[in-house]
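[audit] Reproducing an earlier prediction to check determinism. Same input, same settings, fresh worker. If the tokens differ from the archived copy the diff job will pick it up downstream; this log only records the rerun itself.
[audit] input (124 residues):
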Amino acid sequence: MRQGIVLVMILGVLAGCMSMPAPPRQSYFVVFFVPGTVRLAPEAEQIVRQVASIASMSKTAKIEVSVPADAPGGAALREGRFTSIQNILSASRISPMLFSRAPLAGAAAGVPGANDRAEIRLVP
């Protein structure tokens, strides 16, 4: 009898855990480059790999990448930074057809270090 009660309680707890909603998937990421270069900081590389993992597991219609328009070094640095992010995503088998460019959020421009910042958004 005691074993039956324990079994029913365990099954009740498991059923309660299974009915809990899954945590929401993150869709906005901020990464930083080594100042004045196209190299992502090591932590940023991990974040871009996380983006790739989330994008491959979810129904992502578009991956927007935002890099400051006035990055030091001009267009070459801006292009190189976009390509750095794109290369990591492509290496994770994310279709290049999903990539798009978007303007950096206006409020982000005033943040210290914003010239070495990029934003990545997963659009469902």
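[audit] rerun output stored. Observation attached for the diff report: Helices lie at 2-18, 42-57, 74-91.
[audit] end
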